[in-house]
Specification:
The chain is of the alpha+beta class and 207 residues long. It folds into two domains: 6-118, no CATH class; 140-207, no CATH class. The chain has six helices and ten strands, in the order H-H-H-H-E-E-H-H-E-E-E-E-E-E-E-E.
Length: 207
C-alpha cells in the first residue's frame, strides 16, 4: 500500500498549514498557558482562570495586550495535524504506527470538543453513610430561602422529610433590582453581585 495525495500535497495553503513550525509553536504556547493558568488560580480561582486562559479564543494579558487562548491554539493545532496527515504522510504499511498515532490524536481532539460543548459538570459532596438525589452545578447559582426553626436548623413539616424552598436563579438578580415574593411575604433589593468572590463571617465580600 503506497498511496499519496498529490493534489493535496501541491496545494499551497495545505502546505503552509502543514508546517511543523506551527506544531511546535502551538505545543510550546499550550505549555506556557498551562503554567500561566495554573499560577493564576491562586489569585483568581479555578473557574475564572479556566475561563480566561483555557476556554477563551483570545484574552487580554495585563488588561490590554491580546493573546491567543487555549481554545484558539487547539483549533490551530487540530487543523495543522489534519494538514500534516493529508500532505506529508506516504501511506504505506511500514508507516502504519505513525499514522495510528496521528489518527489517535485527531480522535482525541474530536472527542474533547464533543465533551466541551455537550456536557455539564456538577458535584455531589457526601460524608460516609450519606445519600443524595441532587448534584450542585459549578457555575449555576441561585438565592434560596427556607423556613428555619429556633435552633437555626431547617424547619420541616411534622412527620415529613420535606421543606418548602423558594429559590431565584442568579440571572434574575440584577444589582439594584427590587424583588417581591408573596410566598415569603417579604421584599428585598439586590445591592451588588460579585461573580468571583468569597463571603466572610462578618458579611464582607472579597472579590
Amino acid at each position: 500500500m503506497n498511496v499519496r495525495q498529490p493534489l493535496l500535497a501541491k496545494l499551497s495553503l495545505m502546505k503552509h498549514l502543514a508546517n511543523l513550525k506551527i506544531t511546535v509553536t502551538c505545543l510550546v504556547w499550550l505549555l506556557i498557558l498551562t503554567f500561566w493558568g495554573t499560577v493564576a488560580q491562586t489569585g483568581h480561582g479555578l473557574y475564572e482562570a479556566q475561563k480566561t486562559f483555557f476556554f477563551s479564543w483570545i484574552f487580554l494579558a495585563g488588561g490590554f495586550f491580546p493573546l491567543p487562548g487555549a481554545q484558539l491554539t487547539l483549533w490551530v493545532l487540530f487543523i495543522n495535524l489534519v494538514s500534516v496527515t493529508l500532505t506529508r504522510f506516504v501511506f504505506r504499511w511500514s508507516k502504519i504506527g505513525i499514522l495510528i498515532i496521528h489518527l489517535g490524536l485527531l480522535s482525541y481532539f474530536v472527542s474533547a470538543f464533543v465533551i466541551f460543548v455537550s456536557t455539564q459538570e456538577s458535584q455531589v459532596t457526601l460524608l460516609e453513610g450519606e445519600a443524595a438525589n441532587v448534584s450542585t452545578a459549578y457555575h449555576d447559582w441561585e438565592l434560596a430561602f427556607w423556613p428555619a426553626d429556633l435552633s437555626g436548623g431547617v424547619k420541616r413539616e411534622k412527620h415529613s422529610a420535606k421543606t418548602d424552598v423558594v429559590s431565584y436563579d442568579i440571572s434574575r438578580l440584577k444589582p439594584e433590582r427590587f424583588v417581591s415574593d408573596f410566598t415569603l411575604k417579604a421584599n428585598f433589593v439586590v445591592k451588588s453581585y460579585s461573580r468571583n468572590a468569597d463571603v466572610f463571617a462578618d458579611g464582607t465580600v472579597k472579590a
